Amino acid sequence: MSFYTSLSGLQASQTEMSTISHNLANVSTNGFKKSRTDFADVIASSVSVAPSQQIGSGVMVKGNRQQFAQGNLIQSANALDLAVSGDGFFVVKPETGSSQVNFTRNGGFLVDADRFVVDSNGSHLQVYPVDGSGSVVATGLQSAISLQLPETSGTAAPTKAVTLGVNLNASSKLPTTATFDRFDPSSYNQSAQTTVYDASGNAMTLTNYFKRTSVSTDANTPSTWEVHSFVGDKELTSGGVAGSKMTFDGTGKLTDPTAPIAYDEFTTAGSATPQQIAFSFGDATTQKASAFAVNSRTQDGKAVGQIQGVTIDEKGIVKASFSNGDTQALGQVMLANFSNPEGLRQLGNSYWSSTGVSGTAKLGEAGSNGFGNLMSGTIERSNVDITEELVSLIAAQRNFQANSKALDTASQISQTIFNIRS
After folding, report:
1. Per-residue pLDDT tens over the stretch 154-195
2. C-alpha closest to that of 137 among 326, 317, 314
3. For residue 184, which phi and psi values (nearest 5 degrees)?
4. Would you call 352 helix, strand, or coil by DSSP?
5. Can you spell out the DSSP letters for 233-263?
6. pTM across the whole model
């Protein structure tokens, strides 16, 4: 009987060493949770045996219990690196539309080629759908969506109106070259640039060249300028005529034009749709003794916004920012918790699935009752303590050696009995 008792001890110690070795092997695995081997004694009793005379029959492995203590949290530069400080699991699906759901504590997420937010295994992070204000519009696992980053935001709008307010230096002299040539700085006095957009949202540069044509000799004599407008290499015309006149009175106030200049239709190289621009100098255009300056500049065109960044707040609201200034809420990170997390089935790759022992997943959001806080730019490391595991490994090894010695002793006793001569 002692053979089998010692054998059960050997098997139990070997199981414990395997568990500890598995823990140590995953000391650097993000989101890994260590396990602990629990034992129970084996007693073979009967009614005829007195309690004081019962002898145990060895040991058995009661189970490998997972330990869901918090792992160390480390900072990262990736906004999509997430960690749950407290209870909760991220919900992931192998692909969009899949009915399979896995749970993980490894929040190292990235963006794949289709702009889905995925983990290192390619599974999609699940979020609640939200409206424009970031309020959740549907809950439950059946309402979960895979988080996907949009490429653009907004609708392109061509520039139709431009207002440019400048101050032209009253002391400016007439250009030395009489004929205007935008490539010859001596043929004009100053220039100003404004970014405008075509129907496709492509940015273009509207350049206005200011050329002085007459100088005021007294308070009653007006001062005149000529302005030439170019979009790229194309000069804009009004009524088929290039160049527009500007007139200032003796006080430096703009007297003409008082209404916007309606430029003729033109088509840019990046768009097949013709557009018109109404150009206005507004009330901010003056002629004073101070240096040339742009006092104001506005235009009503709009480009399509390109995604520039993603942020995730402590509530799990995912927001994308775009180059045109738009900010768009994309979803709220879904968290899951269980009545008995130790009953979850380990799947590998830091994944778990629910079982009848763990109970069904309870879904919620970060910071709510029963769920931990969500931290962006943070990764949860393994909760394995190397020192503790090495001490446990030494103890398990000693237990194995002790049971081996007991087995060897039982063998020697049996051999002694076999050698007894009558």
Report:
1. 888 999 999 999 999 999 999 999 999 999 999 999 999 999
2. 317
3. -115, 100
4. strand
5. TEEPEETTEE-EEEEE-TTSBEEE--S-EEP
6. 0.73
